[in-house]
Design brief:
With about 375 residues, this protein is mostly helical. The chain has one domain (about 1-5, about 15-180, about 200-260, about 270-285, about 300-315). It has 13 helices and 4 strands. It has helices at about 1-5, 15-40, 45-50, 55-80, 95-110, 145-160, 195-205, 215-220, 220-235, 240-265, 305-340, 345-350, 360-365, and strands at about 115-120, 135, 355, 355-360. The strands form 2 sheets. The chain has a two-stranded antiparallel ribbon. Helix 7 runs antiparallel to helix 9 (about 220-235). The longest helix is centred in the C-terminal third of the chain and has 34 residues, at about 305-340. The chain is globular and about 75 Å long.
Length: about 375
């Protein structure tokens, strides 16, 4: 789009300083796009790969198969992945990135643990200490060695991208079901499927999900439905579902964090529609728009899905808690008002005057009434 603008007659009216700023913004945006293209072409992330060097083959295999699943899924959608263009240059555009944002947002919503957040008691300026998480519902929540490795991947990625941490960085993990030891008994038909184990793993995956909380557009997302089928069929007799889900989550996190740099438009644009070119070039150094009191801000990753949905969850939780407190208060008041008085309470509530006949105070004192 920027190259086309240079050939317009009106471009001659742009001052040289402004043109220099536009050129710089164009080059910076193109560099961001190329970085995202490099990662999404194979869904390979150095930060995740290097952390797996000392891991078992089953862990690395779970990650490799998930990357292969994603690549094959989009090859089927677009006939090739990366997408082949008629002319050399970038192959990602705003339309495709928005599609990726919707697809991976559905995966994120399906397996993210909405109750686990970064520990606010830790100084957020010191990223080396931001390994600590907390659960707002589980006091016994703890992290194991593999969780620390996963959070280390996120820390390295976020530092490299110079971006904020995703507010909810932890997935819903199924219970560990270790793979059985290999049997020495072999048959000419090969290894016999363990139907009981496969059923248990399918149930574990389904239970460790937000399936009952998804909105219709996420529940009916094609990638999310394909992901559910993939998980159930991904070597259930050989893979621990907890380990496999963690490796898949690492890739989902990396994708969401990577595309956040180009998926958000400059806020408050009046006209954007379904244009295919990106609308998030840096605005530093450019002259103000007219009217002068309307200042445009740069697009920020904190306007992308992982941050906006976290704000929505927090708002919904606050409203639900307030509603619950009001309901409990109303119920308590109703119980107090409708509770029948006991005989003792009724007798103790008699007035000093019964049926219009006053009872002398001295008589009450003699009876122990006062």
């Amino acid at each position: 789009m920027y190259e086309r603008m240079e050939h317009l007659q009106e471009s001659e009216d742009i001052s040289l300083p402004t043109k220099a700023h536009l050129d710089c913004a164009h080059l910076e945006l193109r560099a961001r796009i190329h970085e995202v293209e490099g990662a999404l072409s194979t869904f390979y992330f150095d930060d995740a790969h290097f952390s797996q060097e000392d891991m078992s083959p089953t862990v690395r295999g779970a990650s490799d198969r998930f990357r292969k699943f994603l690549k094959q899924y989009y090859e089927k959608e677009y006939q090739s992945w990366p997408i082949k263009r008629g002319q050399p240059g970038v192959w990602l555009d705003r339309t495709i990135v928005n599609r990726l944002q919707q697809d991976f947002a559905a995966l994120y919503e399906y397996i993210v643990d909405r109750n686990v957040i970064w520990n606010d008691d830790i100084d957020i300026g010191d990223r080396s200490k931001r390994y600590l998480l907390k659960s707002v519902t589980n006091r016994n929540f703890g992290l194991d060695a593999e969780d620390f490795r996963m959070l280390g991947v996120f820390q390295n990625l976020d530092c490299r991208l110079n971006t904020s941490d995703i507010p909810h960085p932890y997935p819903l993990l199924p219970l560990s079901i270790p793979a059985p030891a290999p049997s020495k008994k072999l048959t000419f038909r090969g290894k016999k499927p363990d139907k009981v184990r496969e059923s248990c793993i399918a149930h574990a995956y389904a239970e460790a999900s937000n399936a009952f909380q998804l909105s219709r557009n996420y529940a009916e997302n094609d990638l999310a439905k394909a992901f559910i089928r993939f998980e159930e069929a991904d070597q259930p007799s050989e893979v621990d579902p907890r380990e496999a889900r963690r490796e898949r989550w690492i890739i989902v996190y990396c994708v969401m964090q990577t595309i956040a740099g180009i998926s958000v438009d400059v806020p408050h644009l009046s006209f954007k529609g379904d244009v295919s070119y990106f609308l998030n070039a840096r605005l530093a150094g450019l002259p103000p728009w007219s009217p002068t009191d309307k200042i445009f801000m740069d697009a920020s990753c904190e306007q992308s899905h992982c941050w906006t949905t976290a704000e929505m969850w927090a708002s919904n939780n606050y409203d639900s808690l307030s509603s619950l407190n009001r309901s409990n208060s109303d119920a308590n008041t109703e119980r107090l008002e409708s509770r029948p008085l006991s005989p003792e309470s009724q007798s103790s509530s008699l007035s000093f005057f019964d049926s219009g006949n006053p009872t002398p105070i001295g008589l009450l004192e003699a009876k122990g009434g006062l």
